[in-house]
Amino acid sequence: MKKQTIYSLVVALLLFGFGQIAFAQISVGVRAGLSLNNFKIDPLEDGEPEPEMKVGFQVAVPIEIALGSMFAIQPELIYATHGAKQEGSNTQIEGGFTSVSSIKSDATINTLEIPVLGKLKFGSESTKLYVLAGPSFGFGLSGEYDFEGTLKTTDPLGTVIFDESSDGILDAKFVKDGYD
After folding, report:
1. Torsion (CA) 30, 31, 32, 36 in degrees, nearest 10
2. Dihedral pair phi/psi, residue 21, rounded to 5°
3. 10 Rama sector, left if φ>0, alpha if ψ -120 to 50, beta otherwise
4. How confident is residue 15, by pLDDT bands cut at 50, 70 and 90?
5. What's the rounded Cα separation, in Å, for the pair 144 and 83?
6. What is the dihedral of CA 160, 45, 40, 32, to 10 degrees?
7. Which residues are 133's β-sheet partners?
8. Is a pLDDT exceeding 70 seen at residue 86?
9. What phi and psi, each to the nearest 5 degrees, are found at residue 4?
10. pTM (whole model) above 0.70
C-alpha cells in the first residue's frame, strides 16, 4: 500500500472514532468503599510475625462514555489507602541468656489508580450485568510507617543486661518495584 492510502485510512478511522465519541452519552458517578489490605514480607526474619490485614478505604470517580447500548469505555480515578499491621513478640534462650523482643507496626500507603476499562453490558432494565476489562495505572502518592519495638536481655540470674525501646514514624518512599 502507498503511504498516502495508509494515511487516508488512519485519518478516516480517527474521524470515525471521534464521531462516535461526539454522539456518546457521558455519565459521571462517585463510588466509595472499604478495602481489606495486607502486605507480604519476603523473607520474614526469624521470629518476625506475619503481617495482619488492615482496613483501608477508596473513593472512585468513574466516567462512563457509552458507545451504543451494549458497550462503553469507563476510565476511573481511584484514591485508595492500602496497608498492613504487624504485632508480635519473640523469646530466645541461648547459653542461659534470655532475649525478649516485641514489635508493633502500622503501615499505610496512599495511591492514585487510573483504570481504563472497556465495559460490556448485558441483561434487562431490572437485571444488569457488566463485564469490565482493561489496563490500570497506579501511582504511589504518600505513605507512613509507624512502629514501636523493644528488646530486653537478661543473664542466667535474671539480671537485665540490655533493655532498649524505639519508636517512630517514617515516611514511605516509592521506588521502581514498590516502596521503601
Report:
1. -150
2. -65, -35
3. alpha
4. low
5. 9
6. 10
7. 118
8. yes
9. -65, -40
10. no
Phi, psi for 14 (deg, rounded to 5): -65, -45
What is the DSSP-derived secondary structure letter of residue 52? B
Tell me which residue has cell 509507624: 146
Nearest to 80 by CA among 14, 5, 163, 142: 142
Task: Count other Cβ atoms within 10 Å, centred on residue 66.
Answer: 17
- Predicted local distance difference test score (pLDDT) of residue 39: 75
Contact 146, 178 (CB under 8 A): no
Q: State the amino acid at position 97 in one-letter form.
A: F
Q: Note the pLDDT tens digit of each residue in 40-81.
A: 766 666 666 778 888 999 999 999 999 888 899 999 999 999
Q: What DSSP designation does 106 have?
A: E
Lookup: cell for 111: 495511591
